[in-house]
Each structure stands twice: as C-alpha cells, then as structure tokens.
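Dear support,

I submitted the protein below through the web form. The confirmation email said the job was done, but the results page showed an empty box. After a refresh the structure appeared. I'm attaching both so you can tell me whether what I see now is the final result or a partial one.
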Amino acid sequence: MSKLIPDYVFESIYDITPQLLRENHVRGVLIDLDGTLASHKAALPPDSLAPFVRALRDAGLKVLVFSNNRAARVGKFCAALGVDFISRAGKPFSGGFQRAAERLGVPLSQTAVVGDQIFTDVFGGNRVGALTCYVQTLDRRFFWVNVRYQLERGFIERGRRRMEARARHD
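What the results page shows now:
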C-alpha cells in the first residue's frame, strides 16, 4: 500500500517549483496531461502553461509529457507547447517509465512523476523509484473522476502528512 502514497501533494502543477525538484536531486520530469496539465476537454495548452515549462527548463530540468492517451490528442497539445511526449505510456507498468527515462537521458532515481491519479501516476512512479508529485485533478467536476478521487482520498491525505513531516525535519 505504501506504493500508493505520493512523496508530495500539491493543489496544482504551478505549486511545484524547480527549486523543490532540484533539492530532491531531480533532473527530469514526466508530467501527465489529462487532469494535470489541462482538462481532458482542452485541445490546446492554457497560456499559463508555457511559462511553467520554461521555468523548469531554465532550471536545467528535462521535461516530457507522459500520457496514457492517444498520440493524436497528446501530440497536438504538446506541439503547441513545444514539448516532447510519450503517448499510450502504459502507466502504471514500468516499461513506459523506463522508456521515458531513456528518452530524457535521466535515471528514474533522478526523475519526478507529476500527475493527478494515484493508481497510475503515483503507483507507477513509486514502483520505479521516481519522486512522485500528486496534483489535484483539473477534472473534478466529472462524475467518474470524482468517484476515483473518493477512492484515492486516503492515500492523498497520507501523502500530505508525509510531506508535512518531511518539512518539519528539514
């Protein structure tokens, strides 16, 4: 069950700073698309996303969008953002995470996985030894996403407590 607990819990991707990632020895970032970077209904990235990605890159971090969605959906979104991607990633299975780390040229131990799902992003990231950052989904208003959130709540809360305890010790 510990593999379902994120290392960090954030309200939004915009709360994740390059400084926090660098302090955790992260050199590469795998970011989920749907519900994390944008709503699954958004065809193109919001204007606020490019400066976020630029800040990560300016800090020397390599960025890759890592999605279970189709190439047509992910490719169009990432082309507009100017970011490389892997679609049909197969999360939470380790093969996709290993392919992504190879594409970045960064070991999984120096990779952060950022996403809005405990059972794919966090579980998969923890299984391969990456730093896991859970963010609240942007799609909470959709019925099935809300049902999933109800199942994930306990793990999210445990991650929040883990993060707070780590902050007290630092």
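Response: this is the final, complete result; the empty box was a page-load delay. The first strand starts at residue 8 and ends at 10.
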